[in-house]
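Translate structure to sequence.
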């Protein structure tokens, strides 16, 4: 999870820096600069949301796989215990 947070943080920082540099270097009127800021902010929000959604989906898949693995392991343990009990009962 910490790796995902670093990637998202890096993406946010890089995008924000890119937008800021672009706005500072491009000569525009105040109205155009405000529009660019709004558009850049919306793009940044969309990028972050996409990245967060992808991270959440990946975590869901990992969690689902672990749950399936644990369920299978539990089922195997119960089956083995049941077999041992049956063997003991048949020997008595």
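Result:
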């Amino acid at each position: 999870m910490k790796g995902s947070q670093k990637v998202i943080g890096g993406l946010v920082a890089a995008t924000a820096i890119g937008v800021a540099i672009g706005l500072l270097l491009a000569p525009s009127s105040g109205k155009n600069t405000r529009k660019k800021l709004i558009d850049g902010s919306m793009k940044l929000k969309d990028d972050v949301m996409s990245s967060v959604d992808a991270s959440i989906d990946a975590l869901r898949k990992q969690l689902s796989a672990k749950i399936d693995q644990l369920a299978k392991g539990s089922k195997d343990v119960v089956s083995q215990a049941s077999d041992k009990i049956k063997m003991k009962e048949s020997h008595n």
